Input
Amino acid sequence: METTLSVQIVYQRPRSLTAVPMHYCPGCTHGIAHRLIAEVIDELGIRERTIGVAPVGCSVFAYNYFDCDFVEAAHGRAPAMATGIKRLLPDRVVFTYQGDGDLASIGMGEIIHAAGRGENITVFFINNAIYGMTSGQMAPTTLPGQKTTSSPQGRDVETMGYPLRMAELLANLDGAGYVVRRSLHDPKNIRMAKKAIRLAFETQLRGLGFAMVELLSTCSTNWGLSPLESLRWLEEHMIPYYPIGDFKVAEALQAIKV
Amino acid sequence: MAKELLKGNIAMAEAAIRAGLEGYFGYPITPQTELLEWMAERMPALGRAFLQAESEVAAINMLYGAACTGARVMTSSSSPGISLMMEGLSYIAGTEVPAVIIDVVRGGPGLGNIAPSQGDYNQIVHGGGHGDYHPIVLAPASVQEAVDLVVLAFDLAEKYRTIVFIMADGNIGQMMEPAELPPMRPIRTEYPDWAVRGAMGRERRILSSIYIDPKDEEVTNYRLLQVWNRIQAAEIRYREYFLEDADYVVIGFGTAGRIALSAVRMARAEGMRVGLLRPITLSPFPHPQIENLIPQVEGILVVEMNSGQMLEDVQKAVRGRVPVEFYGRLGGMVPFPDEILAEIRRMCREGIPPDGDPRQRWMKRFAPIIRWHD
Output
């Protein structure tokens, strides 16, 4: 009996990801989110007609890591900038990549109206419950009681208000075609997140309106936890407040199997 | 093409469309709203992009994104809306993408009113958003000139990859007068080599205003200044009236310049040797033209619909070599030709004090009018 040895590639850098080291902290889940988006762009074969819009925040340099055309928006304005691009180039695929301060605080007006208009763009919303780039201040998604540098005694909802559940909020709007929340804290959830990213792009490719995937993420540096502790903290504290789920799935999407 | 009776706002909108406008993003605000309404009717009918944004902040950032595609794009607003656009303007300047913005200026500060004003001069000519850059600013004095300058604005914006403002005022926007529109230009089919349109068969392109290493930002700021030097050398525009033998010159732009021309004509009829310099580019400012007038004239009267914002630029050009006088109306009030004529008469009869502050002297002369309002 003859034995044939062959080498099979089972894992490599997606074509849509550039071969440069990322600046993210050890334990940060931005790298996972980037990779999943790049894998889906590859699978859909849309790299050459995709235009990304980077935010202000830790992922301000996201444009360095995707091998497609990119622009860099002002803080919170990525949905407006994406709207301008999409309206001029309706056959291109336009996505934004935004953090919680960017999307849910300073950019609340832009995201609500982009969703309300049914703007045919895809939004990836990284929710790690803290401001990362400015080193750990309270975000609109910071949990009640959570300590940050600007809520040193813990977020007191009496004076600092309640965290915002963006996926639930945007899913209420008629213009939303696909709005879901996923998490990046373990392999099962990462696989679920990738499927959602695929559907969020499919929403745009089929002209079904606004799509957003909220991705629960970690920030070991500013949470003051090890990477492993951070993943546990996300699971134990964030998911009870921000449940994983589908909040709006257009009928035409429900039949798609990915 | 024949002349038509056109409202300024609509004429500017149609001129932009005929200049090959591909995308318009705006928000309603008096006194520019007819411009947005005209775009709402015409742009979709031509298969081009029109969007009423949720705010001026969104509108300017939509414009920013659209400008990154290399298309001809514009927005329009009025003073409070332009204030909201300052953030996006700075990003557009930092990214070096061309964009045209029309400001139909109204009375302020704050909510102010909806009457014609030139109070945005400093905000636009010397300001804009944060950081180190200079926009081109064009100031029309008639509907026809507004039409012509809108077309020019797109060409300049693209030639220098810069922001071009049309600084009109409520008069220019709201007034109807005969004007000839330009022929319809075809939409471009080729886009510049920096445009972000998808990396089809080429290396990816990134458009950003980030230069995280200060050395790179210094290089960028230096390059912006080099471009600005070329603009200053080549793009100053102005109109001269009766200057050949003038002993006195009035300087005014836009509506104030136009009213000053009526006053100058009346003064000429009375035998006074007075002329008018009307800057069309407020930025770059016609410093060389004022320099040329210094040996010739005995005095300069600056007329504005603000508290003397351009006056300071004139004084910078004059550097004390010729006495300067000022006359302004504020807060949305428009001067009558008679008011300016009275100033010219006084200037020609009594001369101008060689020192002192022209704004202070004007405030004193003007105080009775303020008391009368009260």
The longest helix of chain A spans residues 187-205. The beta strands of chain A are 50-54, 69-72, 93-99, 122-127, 176-183, 210-216, 245-249. The interface with chain B takes residues 47-51, 53-54, 60-61, 63, 66-74, 77, 80-85, 87-89, 92, 109-110, 113 of chain A (CB under 8 Å).
